Amino acid sequence: MKIRGALTLQKRQVLIFFVLLGLSQAGTESAHYSVAEETEIGSFVANLARDLGLEVEELSSREARVMSDYNKKYLHLDLLTGDLLLNEKLDREELCGSTEPCVLHFQVVLENPLQFFQVELHVKDINDHSPTFLDNEILIKISEGTTVGTTFLLESARDLDVGSNSLQNYTISPNSHFYIKIPDSGDRKIYPELVLDRALDYEEEAELRLTLTALDGGSPPRSGTTLVLIKVLDINDNAPEFPQSLYEVQVPEDRPLGSWIVTISAKDLDTGNYGKISYTFSHASEDIRKTFEINPMSGEVNLRSPLDFEAIQSYTINIQATDGGGLSEKCTLLVKVTDINDNPPKVTMSSITKRIPENASETLVALFSVLDQDSEDNGRMICSIQDNLPFILKPTFKNFFTIVSEKALDRESQAEYNITITVTDLGTPRLKTEYNITVLVSDVNDNAPAFTQTSYILFVRENNSPALHIGTVSATDRDSGTNAQVTYSLLPPQDTHLPLASLVSINPDNGHLFALRSLDYEALQAFEFRVGATDRGSPALSSEALVRVLVLDANDNSPFVLYPLQNGSAPCTELVPRVAEPGYLVTKVVAVDGDSGQNAWLSFQLLKATEPGLFGVWAHNGEVRTARLLSERDAAKHRLLVLVKDNGEPPRSATATLHVLLVDGFSQPYLPLPEAAPAQAQADSLTVYLVVALASVSSLFLFSVLLFVAVRLCRRSRAASVGRCSVPEGPFPEPLMDVSGTGTLSQSYQYEVCLMGGSGTNEFKFLKPIIPSFQVHDAGKNMGEIKNYRNSFGFNIQ
């Protein structure tokens, strides 16, 4: 139990003092005092300063205090007078029960130097309790044939006082049949016995009511009474008999409630109701009645409430067996409670030092005591702390220990120590108690800030918004408090041409870096600078780190077509011979992108064509190639719209327009393409070679056909004068070629065609065929080809 501090006006403080074992010693002296129980609070016990041979001033200077293992603080030490006073009323019965003498042990602790004094306080008993009976009525059944001088055990009274104030005598109310006898007992207790002085007569008086009075030896004496009800029974000449007078049993204190303890059995030679035996507790105290119960029919003794070895080690129980005729016999049951290790050690802390300067050594950290309520090995304890700590554990006086720092500490190596006090008893199983103490180490500024990296690489995508957070630099300081508070700053750049102040800024508190303006990858791809970190210690310490910023490209440039030019000038025309094989390279679209990386990866796609499926564009290099064989049915002019798209997110694109002219060989490479004109220009007819292949067996039929074609061509020439066509200047590079198997005309017919330029109209002169040769079986085929060819150029033959 802990003892409360003596001065009520003085604030309780944590004791911090240095213990130098080589210069101080702990002495032990004893003092003995006595006080009567129920003495008023503040009563004088003794002058402790005089008895210990100390000056009164020493009590304050050496911080004298009274300590004990009790939970309550019974004594109070007046440091101004040295008097030892009662802090509360003492109840001897509550403190010690029936134990005599009642002695309370205290320790007086003095510091500077550390010194202990043992104080014993003897609490004297006063007559403040009257004898009491547990039962208000005692029932005794006595046979009328009971012989004179027979004794009957009566329930004893209970007096909490001890010595002369305890129970001393019993009396019974005046009567003609009984008197009280008090036999000698080995346990120094007084048990009343009722002695039959004159024979009973059931017919004369079947029931007697007597008053049993218990008297103590106090001055004045106190008393207690109970009613003794005597019922006279018919004759019964045999009393119950026990096989043995003493039963002894050992019970562990952890026996479950309701457990069977022992069975007490007696025999009666009588028969019928006189042979039926009932069992009861005799002279049982309140503790016995609360703890045990007996089956009145079987004599089984069971556990009623938990056992506690630390409170009561044994119980002596008197068991009375009574038959149906009122005869009884008694035996004694001795229940010994065996101890188990059910109480862990307790640690009582007297003082703790929670903060130690890192340059201090041999500082007192804690003063504490340990206690285990078990007995023998179960109560023996081992106290220890961790081995890997710069602290040592020292025993001082009795069960007191101190923890002292062994050497100077380093806060940067370890700023906090968790000391675990481990107290283990030697019981089975061993019980352990741990008490944790946290010791903090105070700091000095001996460490400069350190960046988490010597250099940082930050990535910023171009076209960023101003004041964008682009990254963070971080530095840590192993010190604490203001010594560890770091301030960040930009150091002057080594490159004087770099406008660092307009590019980035830094938050001095948290190291966040911000871009002050929008960056352009095409203008500035990377730059670097140095940042500094300074703590707020005295003197201040600092360090620096290098930061490199890489600008990431964004897809902010659309592809640009280099070829063919898309500047609004006259379109470029690509010539393709009709004899071209599939995969023939028509042209190549060339484009560039101002971005980099995948943003500059270009892909090509044919978006629109005059005749889908005739041409194809290779996706990766922009080459325009024929997709299949050309035929005379294919239109002569084609307009291709090629989409050029980059690989950015989102993608950007551009388009290129190609004009392709199909020619028979290269005899007509400069056939005009229509200028960019309104939509109605598409209705204008193009100049065509009209080749009439007539297969006729007779010359008359051939003449009629030629005449018909000549008339139709003249009419069509007049109608075509309305439209215009741009004709490239210069002579044809080679004569008209005949392509066998792919052209419209067969080898049997050749015509000269002259295209007249300069007037804006196309004039066709159809000459007679050279080396005419007609084949009848080709007539139908040639007529169909003529029709298709005519329709491709916009002619209408009726």
From TrEMBL:
Domain of life assignment: Eukaryota
Annotated membrane topology: Single-pass type I membrane protein
Localization of this protein: Membrane
Domain Cadherin: 71-133, 134-242, 243-347, 348-451, 452-561, 576-671
InterPro entries: Cadherin-like_dom, Cadherin-like_sf, Cadherin_C, Cadherin_CS, Cadherin_N, Protocadherin/Cadherin-CA
Pfam families: Cadherin, Cadherin_2, Cadherin_C_2
Entry GO CC: plasma membrane
Name under which the protein is recorded: Protocadherin beta 14
